[in-house]
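Extended Data, panel c. Modelled sequence:
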Amino acid sequence: MSYPLFFTAGVAAGLLWLIAAGTEPALSPRQRLINDPVISGVVMLATGLFTARMTFILLHSNYYFSHPLEILYLWQGGLSGIGGFAGALVGLGIYSKAKGESFATHADALAIPSAIIAASCWLGCWMDGCAYGIPLERQFPLLTGIDMFDSEILRWPTQASGAIFSLLSVGALVIIKDRLPQGVLGMISLSSIALGIFGVSFFRSDPSLLIAGFRLDTLAALGLALLGIGGILIYIRES
């Protein structure tokens, strides 16, 4: 299973970014580990993982309610990406409110680490074949789409597309991070992650709950993308 390894590597890279680049140079090593961006990142990660698991269980409740012990079998996989994404945002909002601090400040600090983790998730999916694409009649140029069944069916490279888009987003965020009003970087990161999920969802073939003929992840990603775009407009106007 490559996904857990890539996800763990993404989390580690995100935390290293917060420790190395998201703190004041004068801070001691201990202070760097317990500064606000790192703590808020850990809170965001914890709430994201919890809601990712709970969302997956609820979407497959018929199975898990008859096999309740398997709810604890995290090593078997079973996380909802969009559920974790939304839960992480809620966790960050609760943390900011509890601390009486600006959500925009924390969102900016976590913008690049969040994009790094999103890229690592897509890379893990590419290796394991989750979020696999629709069948194709001929091989897509340069990229290979696979599924979790190790079949020889030619598929649209959904995972590779998501990974490449996410890595490009990380690069763009690094370039523009010091040029934007407060709050805008975080909202751009939110929008880019959501738009990546939204765009790829139209080419996915893995099972999903449908609402009005659309995949649940398509609609949820669209909602989060609009939230991010709205946030960009609000923060630009306030600046």
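The chain is about 65% helix and 0% strand. This feature is highlighted in the accompanying rendering.
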